[in-house]
C-alpha cells in the first residue's frame, strides 16, 4: 500500500509542482492532484519527468463534474471529464474520486435516481480511459441532518449504490474517518475484495463520543483514537495495493510550515504502518 | 390502440378461460392474465387456440417477482420470472408490468438504490425473451403519506427512474387515473415517444377535489371527470399502438353480474374512444 | 416524416449557412450538418435564429469519433464528442450517425468486441445529452469483399449488434439504398417499431443486377428502380416521424449548379412522397 | 490459493458425494460439481453438511445454458440458470464458468454480437445471486481451424470481450494449458488484477512443439513442461485467492483407480506448489 498525500493538512504548500517535490522528499509515494493542470502547465513529457524524478505517482484525481445540481451544470462538465481522464491516464493514474454528502435538500428518492444516472455516465466516460470512479461515503453524524432529507452514508449503503450504478469500474473511496464515525468494524473491511476499493483516505479522530466527531475536526494519523493499525492491516490482508492518502480537514488552517506538517504526517504514517506490521 | 380488460371491475368472472371468452364476445381485444397459468392448465397449443378463437391477445402479464422486500424473497422469484417471460413470449405478449407505491417505510435513498438494481435485473430477464417492463406511477395523494417516507409518484420522476435503471426495454405503465391525480397535462403525453409507454390503463375519477380522490375509488371510463377523450387522442397522436386496459379498483366489489359489467365497460370504451375521434 | 438533405448530391453548395438557406428555400425541413461548427462560427443564438428563420432543423450530426482504428485515436475523440453532443442538443437535434463498413482487415471477432465497447461508450456520452446514435448498415455487395474479413451488413445483423451494444439510445440509420441492395422487403420495415430507427436516408438505384450496384452509383429519389413509395409508406405506417434525408454518393461530382440539383432533389421527393400517398 | 479438483482426470470416481469425500481425504479444498444436483439429491442442509464434514467447498459450477446455438435453446436454459445460481449461492460457491471455442461455423462477427448479448444475460442472472461468470479462452492451435471461421482464443482478446460484455461480474477462467499454448508469459499474469480472474485451471503439457499440443493431450501438474511454479507464483503475487482446479482432458480415460489418480494429482500439486514457494 502506497503512502499518499493530499494538500489537506499541509498548509500553504504552494504549487502542485512544489507539492510533488516535497512529497517525494518526505518519502511519500503518491499525491492527489489535478492531472490535467499539471500537463497543461508543464507539457506531458515534463509532467511525467517531474513525477518520475520525485518517485511520486498520482493517487487519484478529483471528479470535476458537478453531479449534485442542475442537469445543465452536469452536462457542461462532461467534456472536461473526458479531458481529465485522458490526462490522468497519460500520467498513469487510474482513480478519480468524489464524495457523497449524507443528506440532501432534494427529495431523496428522486435525487437518488438522478444521481445514479449521472454517476453512471461519469463512470462510463472514465472507464473509456481505464480510470476507476471511487465514491466516498461520509460518516460524521452532524452532516446527516445538515440538509433536509437523509441520503446515504454507510459503507453498505454505498456498496448497494455501486451495484445500482452497475458499471464495472466503480468502487469505494474508503476513508478511515468515515469508517470510524459509522461504527464499522475490521470485519467489514475483511469482507471486501480489493477491487471494491478504488482509493483510501487515512485520518484520525479526537477522543470524543463518536456522534460528536466533526467532519472538519480531523487529526493526523496516529494522533487520535481510531485503530489505524487494524485498519491498515485489514486492508493489506484483503490484498489492497493502492494508495493510502492523508486528508486532514480542519476548522482552521494549521499554523506550522508545510515542511513541519510533512514531518508530522510522515511520523504519523510511520507510527500507524508500524502498528499494522507494515513498516 | 387495442381495447383491453383486466379482471378488476368485472366482478366474479371466474376462470381466465371464461374471462377470455367473455372479453372476446364483448369486442375487447386484449386481456391482462397470467400467461404461464394459461399454458400450465391448457398446454401451449390449446392456450394459443383459445386466444385466437376469441380474437383476444394478452395485453400484459404482471411482474410476479417481489422486489420491495428482502433480498431472499427477491431472488426466490427470479426463476419463475424467466418462466413467466417464456410463457408470455410463447403467447405473443410483450409486456410485463408492476406498480410503484408512492411512499415506503424503508429509508428512501437506500430503498431506491436497491429497487433500481432489482428492477434492472427483472428487465434484463424479461428482455432475454423480448418482453418489456412497464412501471406504473401511482398518483392518489393519500398514498403519498401512507408509509413513512415519500418515494416516487409523478410521470417525470418515473421517467428519471427508467433512465437510472438504464435498460432499453423499460417504460411506463401509463394509467389515466394517475395522470389525472398527478395533475399532468395533455402536453405531458404529447412530449412522449411511443416506445416510452409499455402499457396503458384507463379509469375514470369521481367529481371530487383531486387531493381527495382515492386509489380504490375508480369509475368506469366515461362515468367520471377525467378528459379520457383527450387522453386517448394524445396517446394515438404520438403513435402508441398497444393496449388500453381497464382496471376498476373499488372499495367494494361491484354487485352486478360480469355480463352486465362487461356491457357497462364496453359502453364506457365506446364513449371515450368516440370522444377521442377513434371510434 | 421530414424532408431532409445532406450535402451529398448538391454540388458545391458552399457554407453550411448557405446550405441551410437554400434547403429552406426549396422546402426541405432538415439538413445534416455539424452542429458544433455552426455554433462556433455564429454563436448559439444566431445559429438558432438562422435555422428558425429558414424553417430548418438539423436532421442528424455525424459521429466524429474514429471508432475503427487504434484505441488512442478512439479516446482522443471522446471529449469532442461531448462537445458535439452538447451543440446538437442546444440546437434541438437528437441524432448522431455513423456507418458500418461490411468488411474489415482486422480479425472479425476481435474487431467486433472492440467496436461494440467503443460504440457503447459513444452512445453513453451521446445519451447524456439526450442524443441517439444511429448505425447505418451498408448493403452494396462489392464492399463485402473490399477488405479481408466479412463484418456485418444486413438490417437483422445490425439489430442484433444494437442488442449487443445494449444502450437504450441506439438504433438504425435506415438507408433505402442499403435496404434495397440487401434484398430486404417491406415486411422487414413493417416489423420495426419507430424507436428502432434513428435516422433515414433516401437514395435511388440504377437498373442493374442488385449484386452490381455500387455504393457510389446512387441516383436521386424517383430516378431509379427502388420502390421508394413503398419504402416511405411502410416507414410512415409504423409511426416513424423523423427525417428522411437524401445522400447521393456518386463517382463524379454532379456538374449542375446547386440550385438545379436542389430542384432535381425536390422533384424527386415530390414524386416518391406522392407515390407513398404522403404528398 | 485453494487446491481444487474437477472430475476430469480422476477416472470412474462415481457420485459427486463420493467425489467430495475422496477430494477431502486427499487434502483438496474445492471440487467443481453441479450445486443444484447436490441439493436436489440431499437437501440443502445435508449438502452443506457433506461439504463441511469433508472440508471441501465448491470451486465453480458449469454454465448450463447453451449460448452457442439457437435463440430458442438459449432462452430455454435461463430459468434453470437462475436455479443453478440459487443453489450455488446457497452452498457458498460464487463462480460459474464456460469455455470459448476458438473457431465457429457461424459468421464470426454475427456470432460475436449474439454471444455477447447472451453471455451478458447469463452474467446478469448470475449477478443477481452474487455469482461471477468465468470465460475460459482455449489455446490449442488445432482447434483454431476445427470450424470454418476463427473466433477468440487469447487472454487479451478475451479481456476485450469481457469489456464488451460490460458486466461487473465477468472475468477469466484462467487455465495454465491455454496460457501455455497461447505463448502467454508471466508478465501477462502479473498485469492482471485478481478480480479479473474468476477461476483457475491447472494442467500440464507434453514436451512437443507448442503448435502440436492437443486439447485432449493434457498431463497431470508437474508431469510436463509448463512452468507451473511460475504460473502459481504470479497468480499468488497479484493477490488471487480462489481455487486452482485440475482438469485433465485426455484422449483415453486413465486406467488407474480413482484413488491412485488422486494420489498422483496430490503429488503433482505438492510439486508445483512447492516450485511456486507456496507449499
UniProtKB/TrEMBL annotation, chains A, B, C, D:
Residues 21-256 form the Xylose isomerase-like TIM barrel domain. It holds the Pfam family AP_endonuc_2. GO terms for molecular function: isomerase activity. Keywords: Isomerase. It comes from the Bacteria. InterPro entries: IolE/XylAMocC-like (IPR050312), Xyl_isomerase-like_sf (IPR036237), Xyl_isomerase-like_TIM-brl (IPR013022). The keyword Nucleus does not apply. This is Sugar phosphate isomerase/epimerase. It comes from Paenibacillus lycopersici. The lineage of its organism: Bacteria, Bacillati, Bacillota, Bacilli, Bacillales.
Amino acid at each position: 500500500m502506497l503512502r499518499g498525500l493530499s494538500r489537506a493538512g499541509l498548509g500553504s504548500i504552494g504549487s502542485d509542482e512544489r507539492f510533488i517535490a516535497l512529497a517525494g522528499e518526505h518519502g511519500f509515494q503518491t499525491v492527489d492532484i489535478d492531472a490535467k493542470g499539471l500537463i497543461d502547465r508543464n507539457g506531458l513529457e515534463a509532467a511525467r519527468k517531474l513525477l518520475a524524478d520525485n518517485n511520486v505517482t498520482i493517487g487519484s484525481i478529483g471528479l470535476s463534474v458537478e453531479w449534485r445540481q442542475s442537469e445543465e451544470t452536469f452536462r457542461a462538465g462532461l467534456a472536461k471529464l473526458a479531458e481529465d481522464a485522458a490526462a490522468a491516464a497519460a500520467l498513469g493514474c487510474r482513480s478519480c474520486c468524489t464524495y457523497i454528502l449524507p443528506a440532501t435538500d432534494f427529495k431523496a428518492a428522486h435525487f437518488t435516481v438522478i444521481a445514479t444516472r449521472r454517476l453512471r455516465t461519469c463512470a462510463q466516460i472514465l472507464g473509456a480511459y481505464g480510470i476507476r470512479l471511487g465514491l466516498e461515503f461520509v460518516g460524521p453524524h452532524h452532516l446527516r441532518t445538515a440538509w433536509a432529507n437523509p441520503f446515504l452514508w454507510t459503507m453498505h449503503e454505498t456498496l448497494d449504490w455501486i451495484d445500482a450504478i452497475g458499471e464495472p469500474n466503480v468502487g469505494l473511496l474508503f476513508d478511515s474517518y468515515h469508517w470510524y464515525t459509522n461504527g464499522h468494524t475490521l470485519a467489514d473491511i475483511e469482507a471486501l475484495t480489493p477491487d471494491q476499493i478504488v482509493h483510501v483516505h487515512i485520518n484520525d479522530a479526537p477522543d470524543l463520543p463518536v456522534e460528536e466527531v466533526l467532519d472538519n475536526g480531523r487529526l493526523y494519523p496516529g494522533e487520535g483514537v481510531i485503530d489505524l493499525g487494524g485498519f491498515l492491516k485489514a486492508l493489506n490482508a484483503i490484498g489492497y495495493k493502492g494508495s493510502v492518502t492523508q486528508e486532514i480537514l480542519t476548522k482552521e488552517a494549521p499554523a506550522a510550515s508545510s515542511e513541519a506538517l510533512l514531518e508530522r504526517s510522515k511520523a504519523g504514517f510511520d507510527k500507524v504502518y508500524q502498528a499494522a506490521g507494515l513498516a
